[in-house]
């Protein structure tokens, strides 16, 4: 790492290359930060006779289980958690520091069950994509709701008459269409501009479990369902599916996403419940109940045949969270996939399928949590249900069925933490220098335009 600092100071590498190297090094060194805990104010479950207390959790974000979480995508300051007990909690992530002293974060706001809020467990939460002043939530109670982040009061509610497994809002679009994946084979589109929820996309023959908008084309949507298909849609067209991705097509026989594909094409041998695009829009990653992860060339629809080994576990009738490293923070084709496996989180090389890090969840494989109704208790397998990046070089957060939110950050000794913090500080200072330079140039330009200049 000292060599990187030397090369940057001697101008052998640019600021962008240095930042990418620091971020990439941090990504490859992630580990659990056990000193950071999230306490949502829930009481601990009653102890089981003969249960071991060593390593047992002492704080829960939601004691009934965390079904979903989201971090605001620009400043990474705020986090939402959606619980199996229908509560939504708001957290301030700026309180987290890499120094290894115990930190317990408390909620800064909470949406509890009430006449105008969700009645059953939350399935997915997400911030409004352009600014974190509002957020969306979907639930097993068949509704999609919009809340104000400042007041935590619902501003709109849409009833879709079917369980909503997840929802997706384009990070770049101005159309404000929310794609909702439900028990029904139709992909329901909710228009936040008009408040209409009547438009839908027909093609799947079973429940729809996953959806993701293209990060480069505001009208392109990918969805996956229990029928094993991964469908690409252009929401402007009424003709239905734009293309079906085919696991047997490794060369892109359709010659583009707008070309016909086999009517019987399937992306997986079982239900498709995870979809994510790389942030440059060049690849689509999918996960299915056939215990496979596939990487697709988004321009041709070809299966790249990346193989992730035989150890993947995926069988729940729910959306599988997939986390991809930002393209600008890794070398070309050096991206990482963060995959929640049973009892662990595995980091893979995206295009090679090689496991580079296994992050195991602490504690026993089974956890006792509060029942969803708020009375009684139940036992659940300890697994990760949601993932979200915290920021450049800062790692990610995970929510679990055991009700615990965990922070995974760079941690190869204190030296690594110092390097990441220093690299982040250098990036902020560089941005500040560029801003001051622009302000000076603006002042010079304004002086020139205010003063009459005569050329003799």
TrEMBL record:
<keyword id="KW-0234">DNA repair</keyword>
<dbReference type="Pfam" id="PF00400">
    <property type="entry name" value="WD40"/>
</dbReference>
<keyword id="KW-0227">DNA damage</keyword>
<dbReference type="InterPro" id="IPR001680">
    <property type="entry name" value="WD40_rpt"/>
</dbReference>
<protein>
    <recommendedName>
        <fullName>DNA excision repair protein ERCC-8</fullName>
    </recommendedName>
</protein>
<dbReference type="GO" id="GO:0043161">
    <property type="term" value="P:proteasome-mediated ubiquitin-dependent protein catabolic process"/>
</dbReference>
<dbReference type="GO" id="GO:0031464">
    <property type="term" value="C:Cul4A-RING E3 ubiquitin ligase complex"/>
</dbReference>
<keyword id="KW-0677">Repeat</keyword>
<dbReference type="GO" id="GO:0000109">
    <property type="term" value="C:nucleotide-excision repair complex"/>
</dbReference>
<feature type="repeat" description="WD">
    <location>
        <begin position="201"/>
        <end position="243"/>
    </location>
</feature>
<feature type="repeat" description="WD">
    <location>
        <begin position="265"/>
        <end position="306"/>
    </location>
</feature>
<dbReference type="InterPro" id="IPR036322">
    <property type="entry name" value="WD40_repeat_dom_sf"/>
</dbReference>
<dbReference type="InterPro" id="IPR020472">
    <property type="entry name" value="WD40_PAC1"/>
</dbReference>
<dbReference type="InterPro" id="IPR019775">
    <property type="entry name" value="WD40_repeat_CS"/>
</dbReference>
<keyword id="KW-0853">WD repeat</keyword>
<dbReference type="InterPro" id="IPR015943">
    <property type="entry name" value="WD40/YVTN_repeat-like_dom_sf"/>
</dbReference>
<feature type="repeat" description="WD">
    <location>
        <begin position="384"/>
        <end position="408"/>
    </location>
</feature>
<feature type="repeat" description="WD">
    <location>
        <begin position="78"/>
        <end position="94"/>
    </location>
</feature>
<dbReference type="InterPro" id="IPR042238">
    <property type="entry name" value="Rad28/ERCC8/Ckn1/ATCSA-1"/>
</dbReference>
<dbReference type="GO" id="GO:0006283">
    <property type="term" value="P:transcription-coupled nucleotide-excision repair"/>
</dbReference>
<dbReference type="GO" id="GO:0000209">
    <property type="term" value="P:protein polyubiquitination"/>
</dbReference>
